[in-house]
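Quick start: load a record and inspect it. Here is 3-isopropylmalate dehydratase small subunit:
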Amino acid sequence: MPEPVNRITGIAAPLPRANVDTDAIIPKAHLLTIHRSGLGAGLFSEWRFDDDGRERPDSVLNQVPWREAKILLAGENFGCGSSREHAVWSLMDFGIRCVIAPSFASIFHENCQKNGLAAVTLDEAVLAHLVAVVQATPAATMTVDIEACRVTAPDGREFPFTMDAARRQALLEGLDEIGASLRHDAAMAAFEARDRAQRPWIHALPTA
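Running the structure step on this input writes:
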């Protein structure tokens, strides 16, 4: 079950590239595990490290203070490409709790929801403003309020965003699809009991 997400306050790293695909987010060499921990080391690894494993100083997530970022300011169509869930896991393992972009690839967006990574959509003009502000004041923090659907920039300006009500509630309560289904456990049990009484042959176990 994902952790509940309400307010995220932290440093925001600017990465306003369009069409960043999941192979860039977590290259295939790091897909040798089904565990969610440890994947932060592979996040954007081909951009962050050279062939000898040394950090590239021009990569934004290698720079102070953005290497401590909790929020990523991304470009349009973020998370396109393959459906690998590892992309979301690597972002979260690195410490990113929210990605803000003009648009997201649909499967990546779904994977964010399932894992409790907030994916917030703001238009390009607002993103451009936020990127300019964090580049001017790198250590200043930004707040993303999921309950209020509002981003507060480091300069104090506030920007509302919209989010599907069910998705927003799932983030606030830390629910994935299974967790959301289990909220109806009593109703499902009552249905099964009625169905057993009305159609017992459907529920009969096969005999050897």
